[in-house]
Amino acid sequence: MRTDLARRIVLVVALTVLAIPFVIPTVWMIASSVKPLAEIFQSPPTLFTSSPTFEAYAEAFRFQPFARQYVNSVYIAVVVTVITLVVSSMAGYAFARIRFPGSNALFLVVLVGLLVPSEVTIVPLFQMFTEAGMVNTHWPLILVTALAAPCVLATFIMRQFFIALPGELEEAARLDGLGRPAIWARIALPLAKPALSAVTILTFLASWNLYLEPTVYLTSPELFTLPQALTRFTDAYGGEMWNTQLAAATMTVVPVLIVFVIAQRQFVEGLAHAGLKG
Amino acid sequence: MKAPFWTTRRRDALTGYLFITPQLIGVVVFVLVPVGLAVWYSLNDWNIFRGELTFVGGENWAALLDDPQLPSVLGATAVFSGGVVVLNISLGLALAVMLNRRFRGVTVFRTMFFSPVVVSVVAWTLVWGFLLQDNGGINAALSVVGIDGTNWLQNGNTAMVAVIVTQVIRSVGVNMVLFLAALQGVPGELYEAARIDGAGDAAIFRRITLPLISPTLLLTAIITIVGALQAFAQIAVLTQGGPGLSTTVLVYYVFQQAFEFNDIGYGSTLALMLLTFVMLLTLLQWQLRRKWVFHEN
Questions:
Q1: Number of other residues whose CB lies within 10 A of the CB of residue A168
Q2: CATH of domain B79-248
Q3: Interface contact B13, partner A, CB < 8 A
Q4: B2: distance to nearest CA of chain A, Å?
Q5: Where are the transmembrane segments (chain B) (predicted)?
Q6: Among residues A20, B118, B221, B234, which one has the fewest Cβ atoms lying within 10 Å of its Cβ?
Q7: Domain check: are A151 and A46 in the same one?
């Protein structure tokens, strides 16, 4: 009994120590974003300030079109996620449930999209989008993200889900005279909520976090997305505006963290689901 | 009587093709065509002033052998990917084993270890950049216990370690969750039977747990190593490949060649080398899967 308690205490202490580098950076970021500039690098360091100021938050909006950039990130992520949900659930359903000649070969072709890193295709894609006159617009970010890599992962997740679905429901629907599209929309999709929420979370995060693509395609600050904007808080002499950067980072991170804490079961289960079925 | 052309089977097949068309077009236009173009660019030289391609055959490929920076870049790539995979898998497994039991607060711990996954890579890296500075939080904390920390990101030896650790802490939550799900799939009777046979914790872990979760180990290894080979934002924000070339991994080198030095031909050649690595690793792991992974039947 006693050794059991001792073991448990050791475990909790070990986990607490391990958790420090996972939690403190985020806490420090939020706490420092309301510090006066001089206090950020003060030694010995303070975690919480005694004289909080929101000046850095105001400065973030003055220095860059930050509200605009925020809207850009949100609407791109939403559009990409919606397109991905439709495209991947259709393709995943067809690959899993419909027999048609060449389906296995075509599925392999799609899977190649999962293997090719975006860093490999970005050089040719940049040339292609230059030809199409789409550089310095949001089109490359939306099209490539919604139809290539993250979407292929989504299609894979959806296929794995639909394969495991029992066939009787579909048979019954067929006897009632429903066609394939109706079965997909009215029978399969409502049953696929766990897979759809996994896809929503993974795709939204993938789009929200894009960094290479906006860096390559976008040059006008009012078109920037948040990750890209975060790195541009430097003053005229190239010096970094520490507390402004931290305030902007906090505004980028905290809403997602709040959603995560509220919906963490969906996050974690969706991810485990997606991973294990792969 | 003639059978109607649109049988259920034919109609089904047509629906199937229509359903996969958007995804198929996406992969063809945004993945396969670009890969083909990359191969073509790698055989050409890009004249930046005239905006023209000149066919040069294997010149870019031969240049790989003469590039004095490439050995260092490949070395950094190997150290970074290897370091991330080893640390990520072992820490992820350790966390999962510790958290795979019921005690008060276990959910809070799981949430804490997973939370960096949902923090944007750039924000996470920026914050670590502050903390790792000479006068940043980590050295300040070290000085409290009497250790004089180095300037982590400016020191060739520690910059790589810093980049690896930052990356692992941000992403290990994913592997932790995958391992947790796998551990929960191990039937409890197996553990009980082993205990009755007198097996200790270490033996149980090695003989029962590890073989049973080996499919997950393999999967996480693939995800982690492919992810590490593609880590761009972390390097771009934290070290810009420096000091010197010490943290210039292959993806960052591709970006520099193609977009900073506008050498499209050589950049594409390097990108195809990266693609080859990813493909080879995936193939290797598929092969290992046959030999090494435990099968129930």
A1: 8
A2: 1.10.3720.10
A3: yes
A4: 23
A5: 20-43, 73-99, 111-131, 159-183, 264-284
A6: A20
A7: no
